[in-house]
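Sample 1 of the test manifest.
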Amino acid sequence: MTLFTIAGRYLQGRLVASVLTAVSIALGVSLVVATVLLSRGIRDGFVEGTTDYNLIVGAKGSPTQLVLNVVFRIDTPTPNISWRTYEYLKDDPRVEMAVPVAMGDAYQGFRYVATTDAYFAPFPWRRRTFALSAGRFFRDDPPEQPRYEAILGAEAARRTGLGVGDRFYEGDEMAEYPLTVVGILSPTRSADDRAIFFSLASFWEMNEVSRKMQVKPLTAVLVRPRRMSDLPSLHRGFNVSAETQAAFPSAVLLNVFNLVNLVEEVLAIVLGIVALVVLLYLFVSMYSATFERRREIATMRALGASRATILGIVLLESCFLAGIGGVAGILGGHGAAYLGALLLAARSGVVAHPFAVSCLQPVTFVAVVGLGALSGLLPALFAYRMEVSENLAPIS
Amino acid sequence: MEHARPAVTVRGVTKSFSLGAGRALEVVDVEHLALPTGSCTVLKGRSGSGKTTLLNLIAGVSLPTTGSILIDDTEIFALPEPRRDRFRAEHVGYVFQTFNLLSAFSALENVMLSMMFARTVPRSQQRTRAREILARLGLADRLAHKPAQLSRGEQQRVAIARALANDPPVVLADEPCASLDAETAREVLAEFLTVCREHRTTLLIVSHDDAVLDTADRVLDMATLNRARGRRQTAPAGEPE
C-alpha cells in the first residue's frame, strides 16, 4: 500500500464523480489545446501557403480579397482584368516574371485555376517547387486550340478519386468541355493541393462569357520584379490606374495575422474563464469528497496517519484527476484541432498541421497538474486541520 | 494474574470542552490510572461519562487540558505531533464501536493500511501478514470484500485485525460488541481476547456487556475513576458558577 494506492482507491470509490470531474477538465483542456494548435496551425498554414511572388496585380477593390482569393483560394474572386495587363507586365523591364491566373468555378469543391506552365516553373528564386507524382504537366496550348488537359493538386486527386487519363466536368452544361487529367502534383502543403489547374485557352473556351470576348479575361497576374527596389514603383503604378490594383501578399498576410492576434486575445479571455470554471469545479468536487469522507480521514489519523499523509492523499487525488483530465484533454484537443484543420482546408486553401510536437504538450500537462494541485490545496488543508476525535463518531 | 510495570499510566489528566463565552465543560478528570502490561481492563459507565474521551486521550488523538499519559514509559504528549502519530501507529491499536472501516478498501487493504502508517512490518510482508491475521479471525475467504459486502460480525473482525496488525502493546476497544448480536459478539470477543492474550497485549475495553465484563481482569467504573463525577461546568473568573 502506498499513498498512490489510497488516492487511486478513493477515486475508484466515487467513480461517477471522478469521471465527470476528469471529463470536465478534459473538455476545458481540449478547448485550450485545440485553440492554440489551430491558431498556430492557421498562422503556419498562411506562412507556408503564401506565394513566392512579391506582387499581385488584379482588378480594383480590396487587396485582402485579391490576395486571399488568388493565393489561398479564400473569398470570392475579384472582377476580371484584361490580358493586356499581363502583356504590359510581361514586357516591363522591371519585371523578371509575370504569371497570369484566372480563377474559375470548382469541381466537387476543388477550385479551377487557369494559368500557364510558368506557374509551376522551378525558378532559382522560388521557395516552392512543384513535382508530379503521376503523369505530366499540361501543355500551353494556343487560344484557338485548347486541349482541355488538367493537372490536379494532391488533395484534389485524393478526394475526387480522379487519376491520369480520367475525364471529368462539373454540371451538365459543361459536358461538352470535359477536362482530361494528365498529371497529379505531389503535396505542396498549400492551397495548390486543393486546386485543379489547366490552361488559360481551355478556361476561356469553357467559359461562355469569355468565348464571346475579344480580349480574354484574367483574375490576376503574379509578379516577380528584377530588383526589389522596383517593387514600390510597380505597386504605385498599378494602384493609380482606375481599373487595377497591386497588392503585396506579405502586407495582406500581416493584416491577417493582426486579425488573428485580435481573435486570439478575445479567445484567451474566454479560455481563461473556462479554465477558472474547471478549476472551481475540481475544487468543489474535491471539497465535497473530503467533507463527506471526514470520518474516514479521522479514522486514518487514529490509525497513525500524520497530517502530512492526509494532505498528500487529497493532493494526490486532485493531481490524479487533473492529470487524467489533462492527458485526455491534450489528446482530445489534438483530435479537435485535426477536425478543425480538415474543416478549414475544406473551406479554404489554408492547410493547417496541428500535430507538431512542441513544448505545448508537456507544458500544458504540467500546468494542468499544477492547477489541479492548487484546486486541491484548500480541501487538502481542510483535511489536514481536521480534528480527529470530533470526527470519529458516525456522521448523521 | 501477575503483572509487571504498567503499559499505560494516566496521571492527573483532565479534559475540558469549551462551551463558548468563557465557559467550559470538564468531561474527564482522572487522577491516576495504571494498566498493567498484558492485563484486560474493562471500563464501564453511563453515557457521556467520558469513557470514549479517555480512550481518545490514551490513543493520543485528543489533547488533555492538563496531565500526562505514558505508554511504555513514553510521555505521549511530550512528543511532537508527527512523532506521536507514528508512536500511536506502532504502539496503540484502536477498535471503534462502529468499526470505522474505510469503505473504498477491501478487508485486506483495511488491515494493510494500519501497517502502512506504522511501517513496523516491511512492505513486502504486509500483504502476507494481513492475510494471516484475517485468516486467524476466520476471514480467509473475505479478503477482497469491501466493508459493504461484509456482515457486521465480519466487519468487526476486520476492525480487530486492523487494530492487531502491527502487534501493538496496547489495544483500546470502544464498545466492540455493542452493534453485534449476542452470539456474534461472543464469538468475536473470544477470538479477540485469545489473540490479545497470546501476544500479552494490554487491553482497555469500554463496555457494558456482561460477556465482556466476565472476561476482564479488572472492571473500572468511569464514575469512580473520574474525579469530575459527571459533567462539571466552569465559569469565567468573576462569574458565579
